[in-house]
Amino acid sequence: MKFRKNNHLLYLTVVSIFLVWFIVAFLIYPNINIVYHTFFADGKFSIRAIEKIFTSARAVKGLKNSFLLAFTIMITSNILGIFVVLVTEYFDIAGSRFLSVVYKIPMVFGGVVLANGYLFSYGANGFLTRMLREVFPQMDPYWFSGYLAVVFVMTFACTTNHLIFLRNALMNIDYQTVEAARNLGAGSFYILRRVVFPVLKPVLLTCTIMLFQTGLMAVSAPTMVGGRDFQTIGPMILTFSERTSSRDIAAVLSLILGIAEMALLYVSIRIERKGNYVSVSKVKTPLQKQKITNRGINVVIHGLAYLLVVIYLLPLLAVVLFSFTDRYCITNGEFDPARLTLKNYMEVLTDSAAYKPFLTSIIYSALSALLVIVIVLICLRLILKYRNKATALLEYLLHIPWFVPPVMFALGMIITFDLPHWIMFNQPLVGTVFIMLIAYSVVMIPYTLRMLKSAFASFDTNLEDAAQNLGASGIRTFLQIVLPCIMPVVLAVFAINFNGKLSDYDISAFIYHPLYPPLGVVIKNNVSNNIEGDAQALNLVYSVILMIISSTILYLVYGRNSKRKEDI
């Protein structure tokens, strides 16, 4: 018994030392250091970096563009997200199952891959642009760039939260409340406005905040389709961080993002606390789809629903079809069935230079998804077993990445670890293969913590008590009793984290190893450096394979087991 207690004490000591080092080194110190580097670059307090920002027309314009994009996306993507959920889950629309599948395309065709798809379709060398120029020869080939192009791409890319969270909230509405309002003579749209939307208000608020954050911190879409006329903060921070002399400007810009992030979260918490939301009954009647009685409105909504299908499908189909064509078809935007070939796929699958970025992204995504789950499981074990001030502080600290924009975190890592540092045992981290693995893992901690904590909440602790009463050690009880019970959620979170980082560009662009560029960086560089020919062909194949992987993962997470969907 004494030996077991000593082992347990040793385990707690080792774990505690590791967690303290990890949190200080990667969650706290880089963020503090970026503030110090900004205002105490020469050892004395100075606001010179702030003066540089507001005397730079480019930087001021970038700030304005970022906030403009954030407010615009908050409106446009919210409208689109609400619409697609309503036409697939609330209103009785012909072909709603088909619509539901099409509207989920951004879940497997997003980020830098989606931006590349829209560029291939609507860009200067896109097939649709070439078709339009045959009809309108004077048309500007670079029409799809700038503010409106970025808004268009991000509006259709940012509806995934609506498809997951808003849809689930809508399906949980008690149909009895809807039926009661109808029996009192209320019309369909009055019920929607006065009965349904009040219940959905908390989820809509969350989606709105997340949209604002996404627009404010966007990197891939403004970089790829923004052009010179519409530059936002994210790409500017990336550009400034590449030069040591301008890193102070990048630091100030990232701090502005961080302040905006914290202010937004504070406002959202205040609104949620003051909110008075309609509750639903404990015994729910499943929601039934509502018919649109007004014939004219019904036709308009059906028309809009299927117009969106065209917009969603066009880039995806173009990417898939042209990935099987040769260089001539891709360069000239002409689809010729006679030129169909598997050469592009064979090159990616057999040429080490072509498939190396794929392996790099898969390895980084898998290892970071596994690492963050291990760290969070250890933390949750301590938080739930030892409820005290230390574990409460631990839980708060693990939410730091939610308050820090990814670009600010990446820049903090660069500034802090570009030289040997005592907290990293006098070893530099920038320029190594480990920095991106750490960055991927850190930014995934808050989401992983929330999901796995909910899984622990549904676990029957009597099973654990019984195992310990039978003499099983704490570690053995966790591995053989607790972990198998929550394994479905663990696997689901692993899959979602893996999927989310597979084509990452926003963080990777700052800290990737030059010899091991991940897929998101390679796709973006191919667009920037060689939009025609073989590079674009590789991008198309990369996109198709990524969609296959993402679709498979989503099917395994959401499609095979409805119980797993409830656990998530």
Key terms for this structure?
single chain, about 575 residues, mainly alpha, MetI-like fold, 2 domains, 28 helices, globular, disordered C terminus, Putative 2-aminoethylphosphonate transport system permease protein PhnV, membrane, MetI-like_sf
Q: Helical region count?
A: 28
Count of the separate structural domains: 2
End-to-end distance: 39 Å
Q: Which series of helices and strands comes N to C? A: HHHHHHHHHHHHHHHHHHHHHHHHHHHH
Q: How many runs of DSSP E, i.e. beta strands? A: 0
CATH T-level topology of the largest domain: MetI-like fold
Given as residue ranges, the uncertain stretches (5+ residues, pLDDT < 50) are 276-283, 561-568
CATH architectural designation of the largest domain: Orthogonal Bundle
Mean pLDDT: 82
What profile does the largest beta sheet have?
A: none
CATH superfamily of the largest domain: MetI-like
How much strand? under 5%
CATH class of the largest domain: Mainly Alpha
Q: Structural class, judged by helices and strands?
A: mainly alpha
Based on Cα principal axes, name the global outline. globular
Helicity level, as a percent range? Answer: over 70%
Radius of gyration: 25 Å
Subcellular location: Cell inner membrane; Cell membrane
Family: Belongs to the binding-protein-dependent transport system permease family.
Domain ABC transmembrane type-1: 63-268, 358-557
Membrane topology: Multi-pass membrane protein
